[in-house]
Amino acid sequence: MCDVQLWIENHASSGLLSWADQQAAAKRFNVSVACIEAISLKRGILPTRYQRNGAMLSCHDQLCLFSSHVAVVGCGGLGGFVVEELARLGVGHITIIDPDVFEEHNLNRQLFSSTDVLGCDKVTIAAQRIAQVNPATVITPKVKEFRRDNGIGLLAGAQVVVDALDSIATRLELAEVCRELEVPLVHGAIGGWYGHVTTLMPEHHHLEQIYQQPDSRGIEKKLGNPSFTPAVIASLQVAEVSKLLLDRGDLLDNRLLMVDLLDMELSEISF
C-alpha cells in the first residue's frame, strides 16, 4: 500500500491526479480505479475529474461522497438524471432498482434511453453508462420491482434513498420501509411543467399528507412529461442527497418545494 501511495504522490500535479494516471496506477498495482481513488482522496489528492467541485467541496468532502451509498428507486425520467448526477458528483456506490425495460415513449425524457437500447433493462443500461461516466462509482443494478416485502433487502446498506417512482402506492411503501430502516428519503415527483421535492426524515409521515389516493399513479399520465422537468426536479433531489451525505445546509425537511416551470415560480408548503 505504501508503494501505491508513493506512486500517486509522485504522479500528482498541483494536488490533482489525472484519469490517465488513475488508470495507470490501477493497472500497475492490479487494483480497481475505485481503490486508487480512495487512496488518492485519503492522501488529500483530488482526482482531476472533481477539480470543478473543489471550490465548494474539500478533498475530505469528496472522500465522504466516495464512501457513501445511495439507493435510487426508479430509473426512468427522474432516476436517470439522479443516477448520472450522483456519479458525476463522486458518490462511490449507487444501487439502482427498477424492473422495467426501455420503451419508445421513454425517448423524449429518459437520460439513458436511446433507439439502440429499446427493450433492454433500464438498470443494466444505466450501469453500462456510469461505467463510462465514472468507473470509480460502483453500481449495483437490481432488476426488481420494489415492494414492501422485499424493500429491506433491496435498500440494504444505503445511507440515503431517492424516490424516483411513478406509483403513489409504491412511494408510500417505500416511505414505510425507509422509516423502518431509519434512512432519509428524498422524494421527487413531476407532471408536465410542474414538480415538487421534499426530504423525509425517518420519523416523519409527510408523504401520506401529500398523497390522499394511494391507488393513483399520480398526474404524470394526465399532464405528460417533457424533457426538462425531470432534469430540474432530479437536480434538486441530488442537491438534497449531497447535503444529507455531507451534513451541510438547510434540508427540505418539513417543507415541500413546488416548482412551476411554466410561470417560473417556486412556492413552499410547511408540514
UniProtKB/TrEMBL annotation:
Pfam families (alphabetical): ThiF
Superkingdom to which the source organism belongs: Bacteria
Segments traversing the membrane: none
Gene3D superfamilies linked: NAD(P)-binding Rossmann-like Domain
Xref: SUPFAM superfamilies: Activating enzymes of the ubiquitin-like proteins
GO biological process, alphabetically ordered: cyclic threonylcarbamoyladenosine biosynthetic process
InterPro entries (UniProt xref): ThiF/MoeB/HesA, ThiF_NAD_FAD-bd, Ubiquitin-activating_enz
Domain THIF-type NAD/FAD binding fold: 55-269
GO molecular function: tRNA threonylcarbamoyladenosine dehydratase; ubiquitin-like modifier activating enzyme activity
Protein's name according to its UniProt entry: UBA/THIF-type NAD/FAD binding fold
Organism: Desulfuromonas acetoxidans (strain DSM 684 / 11070)
Lineage, uppermost ranks: Bacteria, Pseudomonadati, Thermodesulfobacteriota, Desulfuromonadia, Desulfuromonadales
